[in-house]
Specification:
Length: 403
Amino acid sequence: MTHRIVVIGAGYAGLPAVKRLARQLRHEQVTVTLVSAFADFVERPRLHQLAVGQPIAHTPLVDYLDRSNVLLLVASVTGIDPAARLLHTTDPSGRRHTVGYDTLVYALGSNIELSTVPGVAEHCIGLTGVAAALDLRARLTRLARHGGSVAVAGGGLTGIETVAEIAESYPGVRTKLVTRGVAGGWLSAQARGYLADVFARLDVTVVEHATVEHAEAGRWVLAGHRSVPFDIGVWAGGFTVPTLARESGLTVHDDGRAVVDETFASVSHPDIFVIGDAAAVAGPWGEQLAMGCRTGGFTGLPASNAIVAKLTGRPPKPFRYRYIHECISLGRRHGLVQFMDANGFPVDRILTGRKAILYKNATLNGAKLLFRHPGPVIPRRRRPLSHELTVRPVLAAVDPPVR
């Protein structure tokens, strides 16, 4: 019998994790399967570029998995049965599959929350994926023909980058950013000053200290009997995680992120490891890391190392992390990198302009390089499973996946 490791989710955490797992364990003892709802990897931090008509790469997952001995099943996970160690999935053609596992890695990430504020889902658009970005591109193309306004709600990274990209690409369109606090309020004073200067150059109107109560056709309705009109409303007001972990009985925080120990094992289901934005991993930074690829992408490799250690009878190393930077693109000519201390607080050091754009591009390209070469850097023999490890009988088989 082989030990079945299944990873669900092929993002910045799941992809490097699945490849490192396959690289470190003996193939005759372990099968490693990746379950992904999408056949291609698309960089989510570049969706605002896609929305304004710029090409971004779509890399087939099979390219990243080539020669890795990882099996791929393109399907959405609709349910987890932890007691039976089964996944229920549906592929793009509607066929249902049942996938058995012995160790599960949950890496489903996060996405923009569209349901919290009334009217947003009906009257606005959020950059929740490729389809949404292409929808926004079509709307912007039509709007640019006769002029109009775009109002982006949300003063975080997504909102800032989206409004700047639209303002630069469509100078004839009036752009507004609506934020509950101050745009980029977590940044240093120097960085906020640069951000304000770029918004002024791009003619972006910033509406600060404005709480969106609900959305209607053609306007944001704000607290205090105010409103902001728009022809296109874009929502970037916060992120949420899938409800699957909660529905499957895992212990989660109020926001739905699964509570894990310092090795990313679920505190309620130790055979399930949760990584990326879906995990609430505590440390000096607090109860959980901030969401985003800058943090989630750093959880996949240590989690895979911890899993390998447990399966091969060695003590796993606890997770250690320190914040480094926040990379913000402000169109294609302006960028901003805010450097941070170990716990995520801004320091008085920033990088701006085209150098910041190059820095961010190098960071994102480095992540994709990690997908292909997740280590260990020094080749070594794959480790055998611990003699004490009990391998459960196969309860369900995967339909033949793509190699």
